[in-house]
Design a protein that fits this description.
single chain; alpha/beta
Length: about 180
């Protein structure tokens, strides 16, 4: 029979606790990455990874009624919080909804303090406060990196229309498109 595992005092202190199998897996991936870096110090190897949780949709879902059937006092129940604190959840769900696999290279940027993402020649503007000036700045700085700009229907700042956002795209170089997304 195999020898018993060493006691905590024999291995230099208490073992770290991992409450879930996912926590164990993440730690094992981190350690494997460090071992790969040590084995190949002459190479620059990307050892980063993402882990995801299965959660309810960030977009409000109501399967029993449609917006047309909703009373005015109940409209807020159909509201999706497009604040910056939900950016990651909005982004990954929108990537999936637009057919992008989550293993694709993803680049996060800011334009005039507005956070957006570039992935698969697509630009994603997903939080509130989007203006024509922000879109113009994105096109000027990152226009060569995308062909289409997606934004969520409730993202434009007050008094900013789709036509204004489209004009900022159309006035930029290249043949770009803009599309408003509504998942709710």
């Amino acid at each position: 029979s195999p020898p018993p595992p060493p006691k905590n005092s024999e291995i230099g202190g208490p073992r770290p606790s991992f409450p879930t199998i996912a926590d164990i897996a993440r730690e094992r991936i981190r350690r494997a990455g460090k071992n790969i870096e040590k084995a190949h110090p002459e190479k620059k190897i990307d050892i980063g990874f993402r882990s995801y949780r299965v959660v309810d949709s960030v977009f409000s879902q109501d399967t029993e009624t449609t917006l047309a059937d909703t009373l005015q006092g109940d409209l807020y129940a159909h509201h999706t919080d497009l604040g910056i604190e939900n950016f990651d959840r909005l982004l990954f769900e929108t990537l999936l909804e637009t057919g992008v696999m989550l293993d694709r290279s993803l680049h996060l940027h800011e334009a005039l303090s507005y956070r957006f993402a570039l992935c698969d020649r697509r630009c994603y503007c997903l939080t509130e406060g989007l203006t024509q000036e922000i879109v113009r700045t994105i096109v000027e700085k990152y226009g060569d990196d995308f062909d289409i700009l997606y934004y969520l229907g409730d993202c434009p700042a007050a008094r900013t229309s789709h036509a204004e956002l489209k004009a900022a795209i159309d006035l930029g170089p290249g043949d770009k498109r803009i599309e408003m997304l509504n998942f709710y």
